[in-house]
Amino acid sequence: MRLFRLVTRALWLTLTVLWGFLAVVLLYPILGAAPRLAIKRSWSRHMLRCCGLRLTVMPSDQGFNAPERGELVVMNHISFIDILVLDALRPVHFIAKSEIRDWPLIGTLCARTGTIFIERGKRHAVHDVLKTMADQLRAGEVVSFFPEGTTSDGSQVLPFHANLFEAAVRAQAMVRPLVISYWQAGHRSLAPAFIDDLSLVDCAVAVLAATGIEVRLKLLDAIPSEGLTRQQLAAKVREQMLEYHRQDND
Fold first, then answer.
1. Cβ contacts of 162 within 8 Å, gap of 6 or more
2. What's phi and psi for 21, nearest 5 deg?
3. What angle is formed at CA 115 by the lines to CA 233 and CA 92, rounded to 5 degrees?
């Protein structure tokens, strides 16, 4: 049964990736912004279903069920699935390493759906990305990145890298913290965690073969960036995420 589930989901996932590739190549060039967002959201939700994942969205205390226009969205990082979860809620312009642009199919999907690539190791890479991020935020777009800079097993919130928070400071944008977690049979699931020496294939196989995984996405209240440095803003965002994480573990 496990092998059958793995093979069936893998085939379904492959077909869905191909569908997304054809959509961005053939349909994106002739569609407006709203239909493109709808396609990206639908495709992301379909990808989650292919992986056998159930998404539960918990609104913020202020009642928001999704990020608002012009917000910088940050969340903890556990799995390669995280960005699909966010796009299933509200498609964003995500910050990703430039190497992804060269990946077969996935690179094209990312490049044509608004991903902002950062070329690590280049002198002006961060400066260029910050300018692009700030411009997008001022234009009302939603931009997102993982401030931890790496993945964890979800049991903690790792220290933040504050550099990219500068985009929100420049644009005087609100920052929307999100906390993502994966659950299975009432306990945190390690199946989606892309950690230690796991390869992407190993992690994907673990997810596709598993049953009953629920993804919980908690929206926290947005934090204004006006009057703060990027370090102060990063600290306030992380403290809010830590507070929720402590409550979630009680």
1. 147, 230, 231, 233, 234
2. -60, -45
3. 60
Residue among 213, 221, 243 nearest 79 (CA): 213
> Per-residue pLDDT tens for 157-185?
999 999 999 999 999 999 999 999 999 99
- The predicted model scores a pTM of 0.94
| pLDDT tens track for 73-105 | 999 999 999 999 999 999 999 998 888 888 888
DSSP 57: E
Count Cβ atoms within 10 A of the Cβ of residue 172 and give its class: 0-12 exposed, 13-18 middle, 19 or more buried.
middle
β-strand partners of 179: 218
Q: Which residues contact 59 (CB under 8 A, 6 or more apart)?
A: 65, 219
